[in-house]
Amino acid sequence: MKNNSYTATLEVAQSPKEVFNGINNVTNWWSKDFEGSSTKLNDEFIINHPGQHYSKQKLIEVIPNKKIVWLVTESKLYWLKNKEEWTNTKMIFEISTKGNKTVLHFTHEGLIPEQKCYVMCEKGWDIVIKDWLLHLITTGTPSKEMAKAAEIRNRHLKNNNKMENKNYHTTIMVNASAEEAMKKISQINLWWRKDFLDKAEKLNDTFTVPFGEPSFVNFVISEFVPDKKVAWKVTDCYLPWFHDKKEWNNTEVVFELSKENGKTKIDFTHVGLVPEVECYTVCEKGWNGHINTLAKFINEGKGLPE
Length: 306
Known about the structure:
The chain is an alpha+beta fold. It has 2 domains: 2-162, 2-Layer Sandwich (Alpha-D-Glucose-1,6-Bisphosphate, Chain A, domain 4); 167-300, START domain (Alpha-D-Glucose-1,6-Bisphosphate, Chain A, domain 4, 2-Layer Sandwich). The protein is built from 5 helices and 13 strands. β6 (90-98) and β7 (101-109) form a beta hairpin. The model has no long low-confidence stretch (mean pLDDT 92).
């Protein structure tokens, strides 16, 4: 694994001590979104770019001016199906000399081409190590490009937050356990569409909700956390009543369950169903009715499917 892992090598005029100190100065070459400490053995720190990247690192080996090893103890790469691909990987910084130069060899052990994140992470590390870290070591100051990247990231987060606040959302309270509620959510034929014939019970299940020929919506269960959350991603649809008959494509229907005052709270969000889309007014009314009948089904055992 180590031989296939991502590597990068820097050769600089600075001393091993200057290189070592530069590596430890994480906020000035990786990210300002930093929490914790990163200078001595057993220190832990977090890099957190909300909605994009979260990782927690622990310093498991520190040899002054020679070597530093970070173990990733927690990770969440939001853009991946397996969001924990970095967990238990290691970031290894090895410092040596070559004539009057100092050589820094970086390895992200476990970040290998077979992983889904490799292509994107390779590009990321090429920038972070070969540009930002190099700039800090050789000039003693953070790269301006690092600040620009942070601005873009924060702007993207702000736009996402605005969009999230616009997504259709409603909440119901039910007199059932989270386990019972989750089971009844999957019984689509008893609260949404009588002619539903597929299974919608576990991660990666694919199913179709028919609305009478030729209309339909195809879903895949993209996230499943027992008794807590289930998400259905729209993989295809045909909604003949609207100009854009594929308007639901790549949107996501999300049920989040939690306990509150002895009841189960269900937060329902249709991610991507926002006021700007053509179907919003009609779909808003539709979801209001369907989610109310889901509540009736969970509470009384009898829904009102169409």
